[in-house]
Design goal:
The chain is of the alpha/beta class and 165 residues long. It contains four helices and six strands. Strands 1, 2, 3, 4, 5 and 6 form a six-stranded mixed β-sheet that branches.
Length: 165
Amino acid sequence: MRIALLTALVALMTACGGSTPPPVVQSDLPPPPSGPTRTDFKTIARRLVSRCVGGGWIERWRSTHEDADVAKPRVFLAAFADETGQDLDSEYLRSTLEQRMRLSGVYDMVARASDADFVARGVLRRLAEREGGERISVYNASVDLEDAESGRRAHRCESTVRGEM
C-alpha cells in the first residue's frame, strides 16, 4: 500500500511539475563577449550616444539642409580599435553602440561608408588608477565623427567607465 501511494505521489508530482519550456528568442545581434564586459559595454554605448547627440554639431549640419527639422545624419560606424591590451571584443561594443544610435532616432545608420554623411571611428582604451590601495581599471571610449567627404572631424564624443572588463 505504501509503495502504491508513493508511486502515485511521484507520478502526480511529475505530471504537475512539468512545464512548457520558454520560447527561443532569435536575435540578429552578435552574442555578448565572454567575461564581465556586457554591462560596461552597454554603459559605454549609452553614454557615448548621449554625448554624441550634444555639442551642437547636429544642428549645424541640419542647418545646411532644406528641411532642417527632418534631416538626420547618415552615419557609418566603423570597427572600434582596441587599445586596451586585453583583447576585448570591440565588435560587440560597435554593435551595441550602433543599436543605441539607431534607437536614439537622431541618426540614420548605414551599412557602407560610401552611403554616409559621417564615418564614426572609435577607440577603446584602458587606464589604471589607484583608489584606497586598490588598483581600479578605467575604460575610455571615444568616437570621432568624420565628414565623409572631407575626412575632417565634425565632433568627438567620449565616455569613461570604471570597472573590470
